[in-house]
Structure to design on (528 residues):
């Protein structure tokens, strides 16, 4: 059985990329991913915005969580071929579901709102951003999570991120310690677990004067951001309960990144970070067959991560024998309806009597009236106008011929005809033709230089043709510019303010920049 997680950066963006644009339905996209349980983050949609194709694909059960207030933001979804025993939304246990879950329908008996966090964190507000779906599959509880962004943000968002991580950790702790369950946490955790999971790892260590392979460098990396320290302490290497199964499968693998900055085309040179994880409790290790990332799968700024479990996990669990039964999702699909399946309403006796007694509307058209209209006499002026509209009338080009050839087409004198365009054409046709103007070679040359594409300048470091891009936001939106055409990479030149000259790697992009308008202006001066 395969579990796959992927931050898709918008459910509507996937079909714009290959090979997804060759697939017609959401079910075909899911089948192409070739997994039994598929967890998406950053759906960037709303419940109302879902189409039937996305909401209820035939071969999958679907479970969603969307923001309560902000549409087109966050959101997670789990598509599964394996029928879960129970399902919940959120971490706190306080979400107002309709209809509300009974005690027997809930996955747990203990929730964070019953812990010490209830007095420290606004749990209802924390669950309002649509970041978690929890499914109980019997042998394990699967948590699909999209953690808040790991970046420089406002103080309230930094605190929100810290609170979210604490509540997630508490939810998993009660499942493991209180309810003795095995847990799998998948999704975008928006944090790096180790120095090797960051493209700038060695440079960060060098900047601090530390060996990138030493323990001191790792400690400095974790202490730089609180989210990194939290993730490290949650893993077994830091004394926590969770196993980073992909790193466990590939302990010495470098450049195993899952997220890239598309604004600087960082994916081409694999200049990224590893912030998408599959974490499992140690009790599931005997059933692990394989785990890896899929960097070749495009369609987002993240790539999928998967875990293969042995199917015997269900046979060995006493919780699945009674609850497990294959089925297809039908109930939710019925709300959307199918074409041609709606029964025709039967007319009642009162309705039939009303229909029989009501006079049928009739549209009376007299044939004589119609004939008279077709054969009605026309005035001379209307006849002349109609003659110009018939297909047999002369073409516009004929008005510009000499007067001898244009004479037979004269239907009325200018005094009788009120068409100004027609009279103008006649006057132009009587004038003697003038010789064609001699082209001004100097003017033509200027126009050609003005309309010709700008030859790309060469960057100052590599002396290679630069590439042209367009500003997408800000005061210079729409303005074009040139930068070095080389890809970004560890040590690429960010500028003197952000990168020391000793740390610059000339193998990657230099800091060359020039507005396209300046390049064109220089090219025109040279042409003069």
């Amino acid at each position: 059985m395969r579990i796959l997680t992927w931050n898709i950066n918008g459910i509507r963006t996937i079909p714009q990329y290959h090979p997804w644009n060759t697939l017609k339905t959401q079910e075909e996209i899911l089948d192409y991913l070739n997994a039994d349980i598929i967890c998406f983050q950053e759906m960037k949609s709303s419940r109302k915005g879902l189409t039937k194709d996305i909401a209820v694909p035939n071969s999958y059960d679907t479970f969603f969580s969307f923001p309560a207030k902000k549409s087109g933001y966050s959101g997670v979804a789990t598509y599964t071929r394996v029928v879960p025993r129970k399902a919940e939304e959120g971490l706190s246990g306080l979400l107002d579901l309709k209809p509300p879950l009974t005690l027997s329908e809930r996955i747990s008996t203990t929730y964070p709102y019953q812990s010490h966090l209830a007095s420290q964190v606004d749990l209802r507000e924390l669950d309002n951003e649509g970041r978690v779906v929890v499914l109980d599959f019997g042998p394990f509880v699967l948590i699909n999570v999209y953690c808040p962004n790991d970046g420089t943000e406002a103080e309230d968002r930094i605190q929100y991120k810290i609170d979210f991580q604490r509540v997630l950790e508490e939810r998993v702790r009660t499942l493991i310690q209180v309810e003795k369950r095995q847990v799998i946490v998948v999704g975008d955790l928006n944090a790096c677990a180790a120095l090797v999971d960051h493209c700038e790892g060695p440079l960060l260590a060098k900047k601090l004067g530390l060996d990138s392979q030493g323990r001191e460098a790792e400690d400095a990396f974790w202490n730089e951001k609180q989210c990194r320290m939290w993730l490290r302490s949650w893993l077994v290497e830091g004394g926590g309960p969770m196993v980073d199964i992909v790193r466990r499968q590939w302990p010495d693998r470098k450049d195993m990144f899952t997220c890239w900055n598309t604004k600087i085309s960082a994916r081409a040179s694999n200049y990224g970070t590893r912030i998408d994880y599959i974490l499992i409790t140690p009790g599931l290790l005997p059933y692990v067959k394989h785990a890896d990332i899929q960097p070749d799968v495009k369609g987002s700024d993240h790539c999928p991560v998967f875990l293969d479990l042995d199917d015997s996990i269900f046979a060995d669990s006493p919780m699945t024998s009674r609850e497990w039964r294959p089925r297809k999702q039908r109930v939710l699909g019925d709300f959307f309806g199918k074409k041609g399946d709606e029964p025709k309403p039967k007319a009642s006796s009162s309705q039939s009597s009303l229909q029989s007694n009501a006079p049928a509307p009739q549209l009376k058209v007299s044939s004589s009236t119609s004939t008279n209209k077709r054969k009605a006499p026309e005035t001379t002026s209307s006849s002349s106008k109609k003659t110009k509209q018939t297909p047999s009338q002369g073409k516009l080009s004929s008005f510009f011929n000499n007067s001898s050839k244009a004479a037979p087409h004269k239907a009325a004198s200018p005094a009788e005809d009120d068409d100004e365009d027609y009279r103008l054409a006649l006057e132009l046709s009587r004038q003697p033709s003038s010789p064609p103007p001699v082209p001004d070679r100097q003017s033509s040359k200027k126009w050609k230089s003005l309309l010709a594409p700008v030859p790309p300048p060469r960057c100052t470091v590599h002396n290679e043709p630069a590439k042209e891009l367009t500003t997408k936001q800000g005061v210079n939106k729409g303005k074009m510019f040139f930068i070095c055409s080389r890809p970004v990479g560890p040590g690429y030149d960010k500028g003197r303010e952000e990168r020391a000259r000793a740390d610059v790697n000339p193998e990657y992009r230099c800091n060359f920049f020039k507005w396209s308008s300046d390049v064109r202006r220089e090219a025109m001066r040279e042409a003069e």
